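[INFO] parsing input record for Prolyl-tRNA editing enzyme YbaK/EbsC (Cys-tRNA(Pro) deacylase)
[DEBUG] input buffer:
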Amino acid sequence: MTTALGTLTWDRAVDRPDLLAASTHAAISGWAAVEPAVADAVVVTPIDPDLADTAAMTDAYDLPLAASVNCVLVAGRREGVERTAACLVRATTRADVNNAVKRLLDVRKASFLPMDRATAESGMEYGGITPLGLPTGYRVLADAAVGGDDLVIIGSGVRRSKVALPGSLLLRAPGVEVVDGLAIG
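[DEBUG] output buffer:
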């Protein structure tokens, strides 16, 4: 099965482990084993790694900006215990870290993880971080607006490719918590 989106050609992610971080491929394959329709619904495409950042990718491959979903890693502390989360928001918005995320993590202050820490702890490349295959311990918070039947584009764990799947399916991915109002602007 091949899908077209923008000027890119997409293939089933379960068939292309060469285009995914090992943890991402394991997460997608495990999910597909439980929910067989996932094998056909989650697709991947190679891209130029220099174009992995959302703005560059959407321009280069004729993709709508609203189709991209950014995954940002956030952390905060409460009583000496760090609480971390991956926040999924449409690229046309940003995560409401100072209000919604802070409340959900029940911390006084929430901040984006520095790039070196985000890549080291996730085991993924910057520009490719995805909610599929994150280490245990991360909450995965998704803005409700990510849902819908249209394909959304997320990271693959590496900069050289992107994953796409229906937004409604992403909201049903294992461990995802759907949050109204996680994104602003």
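[INFO] The longest strand covers residues 69-78.
[INFO] shutting down worker
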